[in-house]
Design a protein that fits this description.
The chain is of the alpha+beta class. The protein is built from nine helices and five strands. The protein folds into two domains: 73 residues, Orthogonal Bundle (Arc Repressor Mutant, subunit A); 85 residues, Winged helix-like DNA-binding domain superfamily/Winged helix DNA-binding domain (Arc Repressor Mutant, subunit A), CATH 1.10.10. Helices cover 42% and strands 11% of the residues. It has a three-stranded antiparallel β-sheet. A hairpin with a 6-residue loop joins β4 and β5. α1 packs across α3 and α2 crosses α3.
């Protein structure tokens, strides 16, 4: 059988077109003007619990680090009343190489009184467990407490801070992690003079002997 010379060479024929691969949509670029960057920064800073580095903030708001640095400086000046406006009751402070919003020191008593009148008199079981870990392990970071309890403790730590039962002892200069400890208010609530009067927990822990004896007797 003679091949048809007019027929296209199969080897040269284009393959059948399949469905076009799905393309990941490219997010629209975010405005990088100082005012827009500053507004996005404020939104992020309102919800963070730990100081954030300029690099982390830049990634969060989608802006170059120099633009974020400029916006942070502008916010600091604005909150401090250096731009003609009033001094705010909060400030943007650099702690341990990161930035976070804090209540100004002169208003700590006002905020503490307000929180104490709004907070319920009893702590939840989760708050009591977290408070116990901090009391016995202090100074301890939020991550270490979460590792011990095997749950997220962010909201509980905020509650304990607001109730004045724990405080920020220091910030690790290398990691930016905040270390927490208990306050004198906890001693007052417990009716003790020092942490040395806390009960020893060793006698309360299960040493596994019962389970071991049970296995041996089987």
């Amino acid at each position: 059988m003679t091949a048809d010379p007019t027929a296209p060479d199969a080897a040269l024929a284009p393959a059948a077109a399949g469905p076009a691969p799905a393309q990941t949509p490219i997010p629209a670029p975010r405005p990088s003007d100082p005012a827009s960057v500053a507004r996005r920064l404020e939104a992020i800073l309102l919800v963070v619990d730990e100081p954030q580095s300029l690099v982390s903030l830049a990634a969060a708001v989608g802006a170059p680090v120099p633009a974020v640095r400029q916006a942070v400086e502008a916010l600091v000046a604005d909150y401090d009343g250096e731009t003609g406006g009033p001094v705010r009751g909060f400030e943007l402070r650099e702690v341990g190489g990161g930035w976070r919003l804090y209540v100004r020191e002169e208003y700590d008593d006002v905020v503490g009184d307000f929180v104490n009148t709004q907070a319920p008199s009893r702590l939840s079981q989760a708050a009591l467990e977290t408070l116990a870990v901090i009391a016995y392990k202090q100074p301890v970071t939020r991550g270490q407490v979460a590792s011990i309890r095997a749950v997220n403790v962010d909201s509980v730590v905020r509650t304990l801070l607001a109730r004045g039962l724990i405080t920020e002892v220091f910030t690790d200069p290398d990691t930016g992690a905040i270390h927490y400890g208990t306050t004198d208010q906890l001693l007052v609530n417990l009716g003790i003079n020092s942490l040395d009067e806390l009960p020893h927990i060793s006698p309360l822990l299960d040493d596994g002997a019962d389970g071991f004896d049970g296995e041996v007797l089987k």
